[in-house]
Amino acid sequence: MSRLGGALAAAGGGIGTGARAVGGGARYAVHLPGAAWTGARRRPRRAFTVLGVAAVVLAIVAGLFAFFAIRQLQVENARTAATAAAEQKVTDLLSYDYRSIATDQDARTAMLTGQFKDDYASLLKDVVAPAAAQQQLTTRSSIVSTSVVGTDGTDRVTLLVFLNQTTQSSAKPDPTLSGSRLRVTMQEVDGNWLVSELTPV
User: Fold this and answer.
1) Of 72, 84, 119, 159, whose Cβ has the fewest other Cβ atoms within 10 Å?
2) Which helix H or strand E contains 46, and what residues bound it?
3) What is the C-alpha to C-alpha distance for residues 65 and 71, in angstroms, rounded to an integer?
4) Mean pLDDT across the stretch 166-188?
């Protein structure tokens, strides 16, 4: 074979190889848009999945914030209601008049609950009422200040109560002023705040 023929053969071989390479590249180029489109379609699904998970997490977090906000509001409302009830009931419970103490025991015990209700009723009947009648005792109580020192849920509140008491008796007709500090626990029963504990401190 002449050099020219060999060159042409070699060139022909090179052209064939190049043609096959170009053809393969063309086929790859033809298939590339389809692959790119498939990947593009997969990415939005992944993005939507991530967004869906994020939306669920945000909804849970928002729900928790709402729950705790409502709970805190309920606790604050309980403290306010318990404080108002304590100021009224403690004043009534610790004010006595020897002329009426024997007849208002039911009204007094209606302000109480739990074991303290029985203890107070017994003390009032056996000790306070007889002593008040004997000494013609009159005591007036007034709240100086109150502060919440503890809560247990939304139906139990403990307060520290400062009050003044003015006392008169047949032996001491001039009013005598004294101060007291009490730990008072209020319990909500059927929508009413009642005294469940009253302890001098």
Assistant:
1) 72
2) helix 3-93
3) 10
4) 94
